[in-house]
Each structure stands twice: as C-alpha cells, then as structure tokens.
Design a protein that fits this description.
- The structure is a single chain.
- By secondary structure, the chain is an alpha+beta fold.
- The chain has helices spanning 3-6, 18-26, 52-55, 65-71, 82-97, 125-140, 152-161, 173-180, 193-201, 207-212, 214-232, 243-246, 264-284, 316-327, 355-359, 361-381, 389-402; strands at 10-15, 35-38, 47-50, 76-78, 103-107, 110-114, 144-149, 167-170, 251-261, 288-298, 303-313, 335-346.
- The chain starts with a helix and ends in a 5-residue tail after the last helix.
- The model is unreliable at 1-6, 350-361 and 403-407 (pLDDT under 50).
C-alpha cells in the first residue's frame, strides 16, 4: 500500500493556455498562431496569457506587453474577453463538482480537488483524472493538464510535468523528492523571485542544496525557511479549502489606465464598476465583508492605500460609498491605477441595531426579497443583466475613454 492510498488524494487541474485556447477554439484562423492575450502593443499592461506558439519566442504570462512585442512582433495581440472565459470556466467547474464537493478554485482555469473520500465511487483517482480530461475536451473543446498527488504540492507539480494536455501522478514523498531534487529552488511552493535570490546568494540553487543546507535556510528565512524545508522533503499538510471555507484574506480588483487620470469624478465612475463586480462575487457565495481597502497608484509609481472597517456589507452601493469617501481623502494628482479590495469575510451579517432600524424591519425584509430575486437573475444570466442608471453612465464613459469593447 503506497502513501497515496493511506492519506489524502488530491487532483490538480490546470487548463492549457486558457484564454488563448478559448479564442483559438472559437476562431479557426487563430489556431497554430502566436496569440497573446492582454494589452495591445501600444498600450500599458501585461500579458494575461499566450498560446504555446508565442511561448516559443519567450513570451510569458505577466510579462510587460512592450517586452512581449519586442520578442514576438509577429504575434497576434488581443484584449481579453472576460465574459467568454467566465462561461467556459463555469462549464469546467461543473465537471469538477461531479466528483467532489471539496474543490478549491485558484482561478477561472485552475483548481484543486480533494477526492480522498469520493475517488473509489468513480473507479479510483486515476480514472477520475482521465475522465475529467476526456469530459473537458468533449464538453468545452479545450484541453487541460491533470496531476494526481498525495498532497497539494505533489498534485500541482504533477499537473505541470507533462503540459500541455498532460497527465502525471506523484504518489509518495519519495517520488516527489526524486523528481525535483536537482531542480531550481523556484519549483518549491512559496519560493518566489526574491526568496530565490536570497538563497542563491548563499549558494543554494537547487532543492538538493536546500536539503543539505537546512541551518542556512532557516537562518536566512526563519519560519518561512522551515516551511520550505518541509516542502523540499515532501511534507505538505495544506488542505483543499472551498471558497466558502477559505475565509480568504482579501478579494480585490484593480485597473491600470491607458493614460494617467487627473479627473477624480472619472475615478469614482471606475470605483463604481469595480464595486459592482466585487459585490456580485461575494453575494453569489453568500459572503459579507467588514473591511474595504482603496488602492491608488500615482503616475510616479508611488502607491497608497486607505482602509475602513465597520458593519458587514455585501452591496455594491455600500462598497462604493466607502471607497469613494476614501478617494476624497487622497492627494489629487495624476493616477495610473485604482482598485478596491475586500477583507474581513463572514458568512453572516451583523449590524448594531438602532431604534430606527427596528422600525424599518418590514421594509428591510421587502428589500431583501427583491435583492434575492435580482441575484437569482444575475446568477442565471450574468452580472450585467441588471444595471442602475449610474452604472450605465459610468460604464459608457469608461468603455469610450479606454477604447475597449467590453469590461
């Protein structure tokens, strides 16, 4: 009996070049082309994702769009179509939900499934993984890479091992260590560029170096170093956490403008649209928030943030009101980026009642019934099915000024 059958069984699913793949699926002319989704070459921004043909030229996700164009001037550059990708993502998530209720969505196109208790109902973990791949191709026209592991790290590394359209298993800590021992420290979860640079300055370049220099790793990185050592040894006790249990630290959305903005009424319009998007996400999951944070990045790249905590809220108008009031307190200079993040999550609403609130209970119940009906419509037909007059004006101004087709 191996470690996998004795412990957790985790599946990691990662769609292959998701945005680019959706576009190529829907337009045969894009297939086999170096396709880059994100900003256009003359705009500010980064690469959201790119096709494998573009990656051959060195283009990567999160790369500055100007650098991407330098590497691949012959590429096809497109703005993302969030609505289309969300529809495809919903199809994919429904497939995953067939096999377990323990699903942690990392993004639209990536997630962990804990099938420890359910795998045998479907013929075992390998059969579940292979079936997910087959159904994804048949039902969405897209490919995915699937990894099966005894831990989250093992499953994640397994899904990356045979990309694209891959399948791989890492069934024990011994197998994991044998696979990664000679690879860069960057392969370890939690080792980003800065951490890697700190280790490399001490001559620690590979996973093997970590295992042979544990005291140095701990001296350099303290508790973070201990976690890195555990992962290098194949020890990972993280749990797959569905959104409703994750109690995420924050949920945010920000926008980088094509041109620096000095009109603060325009910034308030953008905050209104961001508040609507974030509100829909938390309301669909039955979540409330107690803290709203405003982020502003000026033209000189200096960033500031303002936060306010209070009663639990979920409505767009409440999120917007708080964010807009904080915007009034910041220095009025040209702005490059604005955003809102939400934190202090709760699945219940608590508000300090006043005498006036008690008198308005009936009106509040009627409003709650209306809100629930509207939410059902948004859940069925999408967030943009219902718009207030202010939202329509803000959206029209934003789309026209930024020169985009959709938001």
């Amino acid at each position: 009996m191996n470690e996998l059958t004795m412990g957790k069984i985790i599946i990691h699913v990662d769609m292959d070049a998701f945005y680019a793949a959706v576009e190529a699926r829907d337009n045969a002319k894009l297939r086999g082309q170096p396709l880059i989704i994100g900003a256009l070459p003359h705009e500010r921004g980064v690469v959201s994702t790119c096709s494998y043909e573009a990656r051959k030229f060195g283009v990567r996700s999160a790369m500055n769009i100007k650098e991407a164009y330098r590497l691949c001037p012959q590429g096809i550059y497109m703005h993302p179509n969030p609505r289309k990708y969300k529809e495809a993502s919903n199809q994919i998530h429904k497939i995953w939900d067939t096999y377990t209720d323990r699903v942690e969505h990392i993004s639209l196109d990536e997630g962990f499934l804990d099938v420890t208790l359910s795998a045998e109902l479907f013929g075992g973990a390998k059969n579940v993984g292979c079936t997910i791949k087959e159904r994804t191709k048949a039902e969405t026209g897209l490919t995915c890479s699937v990894g099966i592991g005894y831990s989250m790290m093992a499953a994640k590394l397994a899904s990356e091992e045979k990309k694209p359209d891959g399948f791989f298993e890492i069934l024990s800590s011994t197998a994991l260590k044998e696979l990664i021992v000679d690879r860069s420290v960057r392969i370890i979860y939690g080792v980003g560029q800065k951490t890697a640079e700190t280790l490399q300055k001490a001559g620690i370049n590979t996973v093997c170096d970590i295992l042979h220099n544990k005291p140095t790793v701990i001296r350099l990185l303290d508790n973070h170093g201990r976690k890195i050592i555990d992962l290098a040894e194949g020890k990972d006790d993280r749990q797959v956490m569905p959104y409703y249990e994750a109690q995420a630290k924050s949920l945010g959305r920000e926008y980088t403008f094509q041109h620096d903005i000095s009109d603060f009424s325009y910034l308030k319009d953008v905050l209104l649209l961001i508040a609507k998007e974030l509100s829909l996400k938390i309301r669909l999951n039955g979540i409330y928030v107690r803290t709203v944070t405003l982020k502003v990045k000026y033209a000189n790249m200096k960033s500031i943030s303002r936060s306010k905590s209070g009663d639990a809220i979920c409505e767009a108008k409440d999120i917007y009101k708080i964010a807009a009031s904080m915007l009034q307190t910041v220095e009025k200079r040209q702005v490059r980026l604005v955003g809102i993040s939400l934190s202090g999550f709760s699945d219940t609403v608590f508000k300090q009642m006043t005498i006036e609130d008690i008198g308005n209970l009936q009106a509040e119940k009627r409003k709650e019934s209306l809100d629930n009906a509207l939410l059902d419509l948004q859940r069925k037909y999408g967030g943009n099915i219902i718009k207030t007059g202010l939202e329509m004006i803000a959206e029209k101004r934003f789309v026209e000024d930024e020169g985009i087709d959709d938001i």
